[in-house]
Structure formats: structure tokens, C-alpha cells
From TrEMBL:
InterPro entries: Thioredoxin-like_sf
Protein's recorded name: (2Fe-2S) ferredoxin domain-containing protein
Gene3D superfamilies: Glutaredoxin
SUPFAM superfamilies (UniProt xref): Thioredoxin-like
């Protein structure tokens, strides 16, 4: 088995199904998906060379109304449900993420 190095401190798993149900739900106009808003706020580039990874996954099985489920890979025992239109800076602060 081959290994590939990554510079990620953690990976955030964002439920794509929840985001799709909201039709975005984040950003100034409420149309930006949570994963995209987090990437922009954290300054995460694509690929494995960024400081954090934001990965959209198919479905996490929680399916909250009016929110998106996320899992922080550094703390997999505690999943977060982020309500639509929640401030991105507050989300990042609650997850204790900063480069």
C-alpha cells in the first residue's frame, strides 16, 4: 500500500445532502453551500497541501431540518449541526479552526 502525505491539520466532513436540501443556506445572500463558505473563510485551497481539508460526503444520516451536519476529523465523537444562515466566522470559531 502506498502512502501520500497531506498538510491537513484536520478534515471537515460536510454532508452534501443537507446542503442540497437548503439550496446553499450560507454566505451573504444565503445561497452558498457550507463547504464552499468554509473553504473561502479558512483560505483552503484544493488538494492536500492546504492547512485544512473540507470534504463533502454523500450523507451522514442525521438529516436535521434547516441545518447541515459536519464532522471534524480531529474530534470525530462530536458531530455538529449548523443552522442555515449561521455566521461562518462563528462556525470556524466554534470548531476552533484557524491557520
Amino acid at each position: 500500500m502506498k502512502s501520500v502525505r497531506s498538510d491537513w491539520a484536520t478534515a471537515l466532513l460536510v454532508c452534501r445532502k443537507c446542503s442540497k436540501r437548503l439550496g446553499g443556506g450560507f454566505g451573504p445572500k444565503g445561497r452558498t453551500p457550507l463547504a464552499k463558505a468554509l473553504r473561502k473563510e479558512l483560505g483552503v485551497g484544493k488538494g492536500r497541501k492546504g492547512k485544512f481539508g473540507v470534504v463533502e460526503v454523500k450523507c451522514l444520516g442525521v438529516c436535521p431540518r434547516g441545518g447541515v451536519t459536519i464532522v471534524d476529523g480531529a474530534n470525530p465523537g462530536e458531530w455538529k449541526i449548523v443552522p442555515a444562515r449561521h455566521n461562518i466566522e462563528e462556525i470556524v470559531s466554534a470548531l476552533r479552526l484557524r491557520g
